[in-house]
């Protein structure tokens, strides 16, 4: 296949993934609409021990399971999960095609469009990987809706044609650094979504509807903590270890006070405070959820906001063609004056 054919395949796969994600969202909507007026009569306490009942950390109550096992909701719930998996496969094809379309072939992280495409894929992949073990099917409509909206914005406002990497990005540290950042971003995003649902459920007094059928508050709190506990060391490696090493290789300096670097460190500090507060001060519930949302806000501001409010960032993968030209100018040797 030619480079143009690979790029066309990637674009078609993005469109196909969007359509299937939308169908999955409809299936989830039908599932939860069928359960909207069925009250949840009681909630079971789920004890999570080391290697014990951890598989059921996100499980709904027995009554909720009985209701969910009715024919119509169960069918549409499984259909939604199946469609989510099919959409994720199309999403992966889009990423592979994007990298194969470049000459020479490269990883699909050359600009913000590609990074966003990768980040949303990781969010869905983490959801699919954990939904069986932790019974997170109730996260399906939120995850799919979030992914669909971000992909739509990505295609409409961030799309760029395939182009070779700049000299500063031609390094194996690009793979190491960005893989860590993307995985951590997916985990933090899922943790932030769970924290937001915790706060909404804590304020809700309804006995029916989506919020009433979420797991107990304690289970939501544990799920959020586990997502953040997984993402934090990955983010630490990506931001404080591989990032500075790559910066030194590309720009001869470990720290350049680049806006992306500064906000990535701010994000690290917020999540470090979140985990430290839970471990030492025993923060649980509402306070921990609020701090987690502050963290995800700094994460996504760094990811999107800096690209629109800053013109000095050296991170070409985030700022697109204009920033790529800026990086080329900065890494190019100074002209030699001749007498």
UniProtKB/TrEMBL annotation:
Pfam families to which the protein is assigned, alphabetical: Cytochrom_C_asm
Keywords for the protein's UniProt record, in alphabetical order: Cytochrome c-type biogenesis, Membrane, Transmembrane, Transmembrane helix
Main location per the UniProt record: membrane
Subcellular location: Membrane
Domain of life of the organism encoding this protein: Bacteria
Membrane-topology annotation of the record: Multi-pass membrane protein
Record's protein name: C-type cytochrome biogenesis protein CcsB
Source organism: Nocardioides zeicaulis
């Amino acid at each position: 296949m030619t480079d143009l054919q690979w790029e066309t395949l990637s674009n078609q796969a993005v469109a196909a993934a969007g359509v299937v994600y939308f169908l999955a969202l409809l299936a989830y909507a039908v599932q939860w609409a069928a359960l909207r007026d069925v009250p949840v009569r009681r909630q079971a306490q789920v004890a999570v021990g080391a290697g014990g009942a951890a598989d059921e950390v996100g499980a709904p109550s027995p009554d909720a399971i009985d209701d969910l096992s009715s024919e119509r909701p169960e069918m549409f719930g499984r259909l939604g999960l199946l469609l989510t998996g099919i959409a994720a496969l199309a999403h992966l094809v889009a990423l592979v095609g994007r990298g194969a379309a470049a000459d020479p072939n490269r990883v699909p992280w050359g600009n913000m469009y590609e990074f966003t495409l990768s980040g949303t894929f990781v969010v869905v992949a983490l959801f699919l990987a954990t939904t069986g073990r932790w019974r997170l099917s109730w996260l399906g409509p939120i995850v799919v809706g979030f992914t669909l909206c971000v992909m739509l914005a990505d295609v409409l406002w961030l799309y760029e044609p395939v182009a070779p990497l700049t000299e500063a990005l031609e390094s194996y540290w690009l793979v190491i650094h960005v893989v860590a950042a993307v995985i951590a971003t997916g985990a933090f995003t899922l943790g932030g979504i769970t924290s937001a649902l915790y706060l909404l459920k804590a304020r809700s007094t309804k006995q029916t509807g989506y919020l009433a059928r979420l797991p107990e508050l304690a289970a939501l709190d544990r799920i959020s903590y586990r997502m953040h506990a997984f993402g934090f060391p990955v983010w630490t490696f990506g931001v404080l270890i591989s990032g500075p090493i790559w910066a030194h290789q590309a720009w001869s300096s470990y720290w350049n006070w680049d806006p992306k670097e500064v906000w990535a460190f701010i994000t690290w500090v917020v999540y470090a405070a979140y985990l430290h507060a839970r471990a030492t001060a025993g923060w649980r519930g509402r306070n921990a959820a609020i701090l987690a949302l502050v963290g995800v806000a700094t994460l996504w501001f760094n990811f999107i906001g800096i690209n629109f409010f800053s013109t000095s960032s050296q991170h070409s993968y985030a700022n697109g063609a204009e920033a790529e030209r800026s990086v080329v100018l900065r890494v190019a040797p100074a002209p030699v004056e001749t007498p």
